[in-house]
Amino acid sequence: MRSQIPLTRDLVLVGGGHTHALVLRMWGMSPLPGVRLTLISPGPTAAYSGMLPGHVAGHYCREALQIDLVKLARHAGARLILGCATEIDRSAQRVTVPGRAPVAYDVLSLDIGITSDMPSLPGFAEHAVPAKPLDVFADRWQAYVEAARTGNSGTNVAVIGGGIAGVELALAARHRLGDDARVTVIEAADALTALGRGARKALLAHLENAGIRLLTHTPVIGIDSGRVRLCDGRSIASDFTIGAAGARAARWLASSGLASRDGFITVDETLRSTSDPAIFAAGDIADLAHAPRPKAGVYAVRQMPVLRHNLTVSLTGQGRMRAFKPQSDYLKLISTGGKGAVADKWGLPLNGRWLWRLKDRIDRKFMRKFTELPVMPLPGLPKVVAQGVREELGDGKPLCGGCGAKVGLAGLKAAIAGLPAPRRCDVLSGPGDDAAVLVCGKGYQVITTDHVRAFSLDPWLFAKITAIHAMGDVWAMGARPQSALAQVILPRMSARLQSETLREIMAAASGVFAAAGADVVGGHSSLGSELTVGFTVTGLCEKMPIGQSGALPGDVLILTKAIGTGVILAAEMARAAPGRAVAAAIASMGRPLMTSSAILAPLAHAMTDVTGFGLAGHLLGMLEASGVAATIDLDAIPVLQGAETLAAAGHGSTLLPANRLAAARMTLTASPRSDLLFDPQTAGGLLACVPLESLDAVSRRMAEADEAFAVIGKITKGTPFLTVIG
User: Which secondary structure element, helix H or strand E, spans residue 370, and what is its range?
Assistant: First the structure.
């Protein structure tokens, strides 16, 4: 048996630009053993620049131009950190991402694109939208179009910048908004100077035919709500102002001390920084000192093989680096609003609908590289295996992380059934409760433990969510977290990576526990086959902690978080969950229950947290402990974005079949939504039984604290049974 290859080098990619996206795609097909790959990106998706004008014109939906970085990172085996890099500490070789521990690197690559905002122009930040970053612009444009469609906004558009990008966006906006729209392009000098004579003449004709006004040699001096002020004293009415004049590098790069030109990182022919051999740059953020070129996506795409090779050389210390030699000219296909385009190369004046079809074909082919990621085969089973192996593996899906990897309720009950009741007088509860209850002076102490198999390759994020998850039992009993011990199993890695990984884990844990008023007082670590993090947590309570046995007929059932994390995490492992849905699930799991517990605990008759056994399993446990029944409204239960669609597509957690056994004590209509009742939750919400007369007080206090909750049903008389309506 081959031993596990240890991780020894950290490669960090900052930005999900076109070059990095292609590197990630290739990395998933041929990873470099021993490298821990990290992608840092502000959001879960990146927009493809080539299709943005088509989206503005209405030819492509928003999803069509999105590169899903969550799916791409899973394909590449990379950890994805959703956040904005703001600093590079080159001496410590760490990247600062606000809100989390710094990220260490051995080799760093930058592909963060550019921005077209104009911070020195009065009113720009408040009243205009830069064309780049693309994701932000696409979101703002979509919201504006909807407002214009419903009559909540006018259809005057001003575009600052008369280059190719500005003219292309103006034509697209005019097409989308219709004949009544008034679009103006404002340029401080001459327009379309980067084009040959034929293409420039054709585009100017398209502007004239579309009724778009072009103002040249007219600098903008300020932007107000609803208008753009010009240097000659005139004002242009504008309900949506687009900034497309020039390109600017991110300001935070200036503090890195890297050699640069106008803020862009200067690189040599190998795409490596001329001032730091551990740092590379590609795409628009790179300044090609050896062969200066205008900012264009075609260069970013063609840099990929060179960057991929040179990163490998840098990480292995083997081989010779390659040089990037950009072509002197390239085919520019500029869309003209409708499904037509103008081409520019070597001065040829090409114009027509056939060019749009060519551009559309090229763009769709590029996007298929990310929407149709190659599936790399897993090692097959030996021909001869023990009885039951194939049945146990089932459909071959990988074992889930989070609470989806827990033992089923039936097996757990059987395992602890033979444990004796507590014999000590200061131990007040035994197996089966959310946490053990101990007498502590004149009050009470609760103690619980939980550990989780990694569902994320980001140890900081994983530790943060696991810490919140582990405190769930304490909060569910109305106690205040007091102390925590960490248990960490790291995959095999070098001593330096062990130290860096533990640093991130403990930084996340200490931050979460400190915010809850608890101290991390130590723990235990070891090496194993995969990352696992757990915490033993104690909590304090002045009065007897809330259990699961106090529910009374007439109580309303309150749930404080949406369900669906299990199916989303399972689908994400299969590269099927949309990135935005994964980001929303992570945000939900990362929300502590401290405030909700403080509001609900003084009023609740019974309370638990919803975790591995799903909403149905944990509610049935409360009904059994209390000797009552319940009715819940399926439509009233909050569901995470994308969860129901993924359930309908057949995705589900490893633990889902075991959790479904609870249906024997339920009445419900089978559907993808009802399947989510059995979905195992990681860091799920509180489920509380509150007297009906206290509901108004709960609603008021939760609203004041900006805490989400839903009333999903009520407790009724009868033997323990759950009725689901809807």
Answer: helix 353-371
Cis peptide upstream of residue 292 (ω within 30 degrees of 0): no
Residue 535 has, within 13 A of its CA and on its CB side, a CA count of 31
H-helix segments, 102-186: 124-127, 134-149, 164-177
Distances from the Cα of 703 to the Cα of 220, 366, 699, angstroms: 45, 47, 6
> Could you tell me whether strands 532-541 and 443-453 are parallel, antiparallel, or unpaired per DSSP bridges?
antiparallel
Domains and their CATH numbers in the chain = 9-114+250-328 (3.50.50.60), 115-248+331-373 (3.50.50.60), 434-545 (3.30.1330.10), 547-726 (3.90.650.10)
For 637-688, the pLDDT digits (tens) are 999 999 999 999 999 998 899 999 999 999 999 999 999 999 999 999 999 9
**C-beta separation of 546 from 442 below 8 A:** no
Q: What is the pLDDT of residues 8-40, one digit of tens each?
A: 999 999 999 999 999 999 999 999 999 999 999
b/e map 450-470, b = 16+ CB within 10 Å = bbbbbbbbbbbbbbbbbbbbb
Q: Characterise 587 by phi-psi region: left (phi > 0), alpha (psi -120 to 50), beta (else).
A: alpha
Rounded CA gap, 472 and 448, in Å? 9
d(CA 659, CA 695): 30
Q: Where are the beta strands (DSSP E) in 295-387?
A: 332-336, 338-344, 350-352
Cite the active site residues: 403
Angle at CA 511, nearest 5°, toward 507 and 513? 120
Task: End-to-end CA distance of the chain: give it in Å, rounded.
Answer: 53
Structure tokens at 207: 């502007």
Helix axes 579-589, 565-573, angle to 10 degrees: 130
Q: Percentages helix, strand, coil for the chain, rounded to the nearest 5?
A: 35, 25, 40
Query: Which residue did the predictor score with more confidence, 407 or 82?
Result: 82
The amino acid present at 238, given as its one-letter code, is S
DSSP 688: E
Q: Torsions phi, psi of 22, nearest 5? A: -70, -35
Question: Is the torsion defined by CA of 477, 481, 485, 486 positive or negative?
Answer: positive
Q: Which two tokens stand for residue 53?
A: 């004008």
Query: Which pLDDT does position 1 carry in this prediction?
Result: 39
H/E run at residue 197: helix 197-209
Amino acid at 509: A
Report the predicted TM-score, pTM, of the whole model to 2 decimal places.
0.90
pLDDT above 90 as % of the chain: 80
Q: Letter for the amino acid at 590?
A: G
- Tokens representing 628 are 């009552």
Sheet holding 79-82, edge to edge: 79-82, 35-41, 9-14, 107-110, 279-281
Distances in Å between the Cα of 75 and the Cα atoms of 7, 28, 132, 649 are: 18, 5, 27, 20
Q: What is the mean pLDDT of residues 244-256?
A: 89
